[in-house]
Amino acid sequence: MPTVVLLDVSLSMTKPVSTPNPDSTTEEMTRRHLAHIGLHHIFDYIAANDKMEFTAFVIYSSLYEVVMPFTRDYAELKKAISSVETFDKTRLETALTGVTNIVVDQWGAAIPCQVRC
After folding, report:
1. How far apart are the C-alpha atoms of 29 and 15, rounded to whole Å?
2. Which of 1, 36, 77, 80 has the smallest set of CB atoms within 10 Å of its CB?
3. Please, where are the H alpha helices in 1-117?
4. Pairing mode of beta strands 64-71, 26-30
5. What is the pLDDT of residue 22?
6. CB contact at 8 A, 56 and 76
7. Rounded Cα gap, residues 93 and 10, in angstroms
8. Per-residue model confidence as pLDDT tens digits over 98-113
9. With the C-alpha atoms ordered 83, 55, 10, 64, is the resulting torsion angle positive or negative?
10. What is the pLDDT of residues 38-76, one digit of tens each?
C-alpha cells in the first residue's frame, strides 16, 4: 500500500517550542525542526520494516507541492526534508486534494493509500 507523507510548511511551523533537555535546561526549537526529526524517524521505520513500501513526500500550505514522487529510496526522502521552504498559511483541504491526484495518477482509483500528516 503506498504511503504519502504530508508536511505543513506554513508560517505557523516556525513558532518556537520549548523542549526540556536532559541536563535540565530548555532548548528552543521550532515546530518545523521537530517535524523534520519526526519525519526522519518515520522514514527510518518504514525503510527498516516495510522495505517494499512506496512513499511520496508532499509539502503544503495554501498550495501543495510533490517534493518526492513515490519511491523506495528513503535516503533521498530524508534529503528532501531539508530542501523545503516556508510558505504562507495552512490549507489541509488543498493538500488532500493533491494527495488524491497523485495517488490516482500513479496507482489508479482502486488502490488504498496511507496518508501521514
Report:
1. 8
2. 1
3. 31-49, 74-81, 92-107
4. unpaired
5. 63
6. no
7. 14
8. 999 999 999 988 888 8
9. positive
10. 999 999 999 999 889 999 999 999 999 999 999 999 999
